[in-house]
Amino acid sequence: MVGLGGGDLGLVPTMGAFHEGHLLLMRAARGANKTVCVSLFVNPLQFGAHEDLDRYPRNEERDFDLAEQSGVDIIFAPPVQEMYPRQSTTIHVPEITEIWEGSARRGHFDGVATIVAKLFNIVRPRHAYFGWKDLQQCLVVKRLAEDLNLLVELHFLETARERDGLAMSSRNAYLSSEERAKAPRLYATLVHVAEQLHRNELSPASLLREARTSLSVSGFDVQYLELVSMEDLRPTGMPKNSALIVAARLGTTRLIDNLRL
Ligand code: AMP
């Protein structure tokens, strides 16, 4: 499919409030496509009733400037009413959506799959760019594209981090200064577990248990910290083709991170 620009078109789907992670995806798209489109849409369908839809950070003017500086040609920022003029048909990707983020945030991945499919159909990209920061989302989009034979090449890019290791996220803006100081422990813990797994001295189960306890002691409310298979996201005891995934609350802010092994 030929994109809007008459050559390859790369799409970077986002919800705005850009940080270096978003810009990384834009630059990757810029380097590989004739035309780059960024979508900026805070998708109500992927937020639960008690989540942060209303307070999600928004700064379109700044986002437009940053996108332009990153070489983006087209910003697609539709109003909600245009994307969802009535109750929408939705897409449900089975199995891998029913665990981790999917069980903590019911309906979240139906919202993600639906908006991604809509964006692909509207923009018709040849290439689409996503961040490993949202590892489960990457696998959901991959299944969506495979199962529905979507004509798009998917690209997954490494997580952009602050100097202290904290994964960049629009939601980091919610952290108090005390929480922000603690937040890097999440990734530091994953790195520590990965090192120990490679040393192979203790069982993965006891390493994970220890890591959960140490995060709890530091003030994190750990929702999950697991070693999972990159195939189906099920817990595994094997560090091969797997990832450490974590979700934890610090105060009212829910943070997720992961480390592929
Ligand atoms: P969002 O605006 O949070 O929906 O994110 C838009 C895209 O940027 C998604 O594909 C995310 O996975 C990706 N992303 C978010 N944070 C990061 C990060 N720190 N590094 C790389 N990509 C990211």
Quick description:
With 261 residues, the protein is α/β, with parallel strands linked by helices. It has nine helices and eight strands. The protein has a five-stranded parallel beta sheet with strand order 3-2-1-4-5, with helices on both faces. The chain has a three-stranded antiparallel beta sheet with strand order 6-7-8, with helices on one face.
List keywords for this structure.
261 residues; 5-stranded parallel sheet; 3-stranded antiparallel sheet; 36% helix; disordered N terminus
Mean pLDDT: 95
- Shape annotation: globular
User: Unreliable segments (pLDDT under 50, ≥5 consecutive)?
Assistant: 1-6
* Biggest pleated sheet: 5 strands, parallel
Description:
The protein is α/β, with parallel strands linked by helices. Helix content is 36%, strand content 20%. It is built from nine helices and eight strands. It has a five-stranded parallel β-sheet with strand order 3-2-1-4-5, sandwiched between helices. α5 crosses α6 (135-147) and α8 (185-199) runs antiparallel to α9. The radius of gyration is 19 Å and the shape is globular. Bound molecules: adenosine monophosphate. Adenosine monophosphate (AMP) binds at residues 14-15, 21-22, 24-25, 130-131, 133-134, 157, 159-160, 167-170. Residues 14-15, 21-22, 24-25, 130-131, 133-134, 157, 159-160, 167-170 line the site of adenosine monophosphate.
